[in-house]
Amino acid sequence: MKCILIGGFLGSGKTTMIRKLVKHLGKQGQRTAVIVNEIGEIGIDGDTIKEGEIETREITSGCVCCTLRISMEYTLRSLMASYNPDTIIIEPTGIAFPAQIKSNIEKMGIPGITFAPIVNLIDAGRLSRETGELQNFMKNQIGEAEILGINKVELINCEELFEICLCLRKLNPKARMIHFSARKGGENFEMLLKLLEENSRKEITEGNKNSIQMSGVSAYSSEFEIISQEIPLETAVSVSEQILNNIKNRVKELNSEFTGHIKLSFIHKENFVKGSITSAHRIPEIEILKKGKSPQSRIKVLSAVTSVPQDELIKAVDLAVRKQLEDRRLSFKKVGRGRPGYNRRITIS
What we know:
The protein has 349 residues and is of the alpha/beta class. The chain contains eleven helices and 14 strands.
């Protein structure tokens, strides 16, 4: 069984890439399992990846590279015993160290696991502004990678791409580097998928590091159930966009240069509205995915941002959701915050 680790800072495009990768492996007839790790207590990316017969297993409330290693081992052993997949794809939280996850799995003594080269995705639009101000944990992520995937190149020009390549090469002289748009696909993205068929040669010699402490990221997740029955899709999209903007504006008041990931899902009938913002300088990205019929509309929000007090982040998220739903006169109730631990939802294709 092959294990593919797709790392990268919050909002770098891991989920989009994994959705494409799952389809690619499915066309090859591979039986694939996906494990999604969320730093918050409520999972969102698992719902995003789930399409058709795809399901996900989520490990929440921390980072699998340091605080949730036992949960990861249980999940891996359970998947192998019950489903025996050909490939397991792991999407760790954006502050995780994938090489440390690989090392942890190797020490579990699970027979038959091989590893694809460790991938670290980079948000080209964000890195083009931050090449001289990268935090240490981001430098660590880049330095551990065997493949550096420069994603979202449609957001930058050739000169900016050149500067990013120079910066990355200084931080990691040995990694293979490839630039592409996971959302749009194309020849370079297909080349990346081909590289994942190879085996990892990375040997881990460093000790364990606590990614949560190193990142300085505050995280909060919440979930709201919409009791109102008739909600036009246009309203769901508008509500999602406005909630994200309101959270961003408040967080920006607290830290004008924050980075991270504010992401939202609005489950609406047969549709799934996905939205996200990755920095103070971005506008919401909204995507509508087709899902199976859902009896109840729900909004989930997960925010993980740098240098913002935890209590202020909680206020910003909950106030933004409540105000927008009240302004639209939509009846709702808040679902209790997810308990510590992990939500088990198996992903098979």
